[in-house]
Amino acid sequence: xxxxLDRVELDGAFGTVKYIGSLPNWGDGVTAxxxxxxxxxxGKNNGTLGNTRYFSVDKPNSGSFVKASNKRLRFGRLFVKAxxxxxxxxxxxxxLKREIVFGSKKVESIGFERLNRQQATLEALESVSCExxxxxxxxxxxKLPLMEKVKHLDLSYNLLVDMGELKKITEKMPRLRSLNxxxxxxxxxxxxxxxxxxxxxxxxxxxxxxxxxxxxCFPNLRRLCFAxxxxxxxxxxxxxxxxxxxxxxxELLELPVLPVEELSAANNQITRLPRRASxxxxxxxxxxxxxxxxxxxxxxxxxxxxxxLRIDGCKLFDKLSIDEMTAMLVGRLLCLSHRGQGISKLNxxxxxADEIRNSELYIVSKAQKGQIDLLSQNRWEQLLKKYNLERKxxxxxxxxxRFLVTMRTLSGDLMFSRVFLLTNTVLRLKGxxxxxxxxxxxxxNLYYYPSDIRLDDDVSKTILDDDIATLASTGLDNECRIYYxxxxx
Length: 489
What we know:
LRR_domain-containing; eleven-stranded mixed sheet; single chain; five-stranded antiparallel sheet; alpha/beta; 4 domains; SH3 type barrels; Leucine-rich repeat, LRR (right-handed beta-alpha superhelix); 21% helix
């Protein structure tokens, strides 16, 4: 017997019965089902035929009509039957239909030997998977043994709609911790399942209002996946036990502030980050239309305890290479090569000390030349302190076609100062040095430190070894210091 709002499946597509009756095109002798499909692409209309509306749909063009006699149309079945078929074998399910009589009482006969084998099989399971088995009702769960070892239950892409039926199923699994309900269109709530700590409820078509009802059914959740549910906001109260939330593939416009350690909001429509702090340590913001470096800087302000960040694929980085994107992110955000108060894993890769240092020096140089958006004040102060830099303006004043070069010895003593044209070559500079020292150009090196940042291992040391390069192309800036290093004889 099919009722309105029953769930059905046809050729792998899931839907809800919205109409039962006849249609003029098929005649009074043919029963028609009007179905709204979960995937609108499976639909053909809005529940109308001609000028008559037979049912309403929530999503445009997600409805169609199917004859009740369609042999491919499948309806809800019992969990008990599904689990016995999968784990106990078809012969045991057939044996369930036989009956024996003890006195005046009829009981089902499964054959005691087979029953023992079946129970032993089910009792040994640690994980039960009944994915895509059309489960809608629990059935007589007393036919099942107590499955004390089961910790993981997969009921994804079934026809479940009632939390009461789900509770009956899980009562036979006293140690259940993880539950997968992906693709299930639950709409009747109330029954609580207190043991479950991890819940997957992706692509369930549940509204934000019903999501709140669903969460109240699982008061002890630690991890929740609610991806792909077309949420535009997430303003729901949830248990303090929750530590991880996956909100990827929704339609969020702004990242919600949630008191969780791990938050995924990849593949949304987020352009703005929150302006108040969150305790999140692991954050995934991949593939969002973030367009401003100011919002990137807000990552540090909004997530002071962040240790892992994924943010590649955002529109802001479309014109940057992977190396450029990484350098910009590492330079603008507090990063560490070890676990601590700072990001140690970026876009799936552990950060190395040299990578962090080079990126920070790169950012300092770019900022001082005015070639990038200004860093946040907090980040700029961190970099000044870390590299013992003098506070100075982030853009240098210089003549439009020339700049001042100060030549110094290895010990830092002044050799000479001179103004050069930006179009002068490195060889021209070396020629001037030869005039002052009498040493041929092939007997010495010239080098500088970007933004005058000199580290103990000279990792930032930049040698001027391309004689035909213009001084403007080498990265030198106004009032730069260049060091003279004669070759050892």
